[in-house]
Fold this sequence. Notes:
Elements: H1 4-15, H2 21-31, H3 42-54, H4 61-72, H5 77-89, H6 99-107, H7 112-129, H8 133-140, H9 146-154, H10 157-161, H11 167-174, H12 183-197, H13 201-211, H14 217-224, H15 229-242
Amino acid sequence: xxxxxxxxxxxxxxxxxxxxxxxxxxxxxxxxxxxxxxxxxxxxxxxxxxxxxxxxxxxxxxxxxxxxxxxxxxxxxxxxxxxxxxxxxxxxxxxxxxxxxxxxxxxxxxxxxxxxxxxxxxxxxxxxxxxxxxxxxxxxxxxxxxxxxxxxxxxxxxxxxxxxxxxxxxxxxxxxxxxxxxxxxxxxxxxxxxxxxxxxxxxxxxxxxxxxxxxxxxxxxxxxxxxxxxxxxxxxxxxxxxx
Length: 243
């Protein structure tokens, strides 16, 4: 690959095509972020990433990791987003030994917009392809950084939403976090349970039946949102009875 500085500059130029100062300010305020914003749209970010990948069929994992590190060091939201999009497109290059690098990116992330994308589409894809990564996710679930703990939960999202995945393992990760006060943890547990409900509602119902008394109002509301009203009411009564 060409010099990383040159590549980053080229990507920034590509992103600037449809960028507006208004969008940059709006996104910065919405995400409450201290990163710099170019003002490029998400479709533009994805297009730039697709073009980059298509132009480099011989990309190596070392090239990939070097690029993402360089993009992270810009402290620019959209450039980091391009890095994640490229990781998603070429997650096939990643190995079990790259989990530490992904954790490093999450450790240095300060916004759900990057954490969730990395967790679901990059870490989750890696865990699907290499089941041994699940052991790392078990460790992440007890990490001191709540973004890493959130990632351990969300890495299972797509598989559970598809009616697959190891729900019992997700439950073992989630239960110790049920009484956390951190909004992003409470929301993540409920989100995964709500998505799980679409294909395998009995999994979600069983979880809520077992842990209704421990769940925050936010987690309970998110988890049961997609259930039939009669099921919601029954579980609400169960939660009230056991609290």
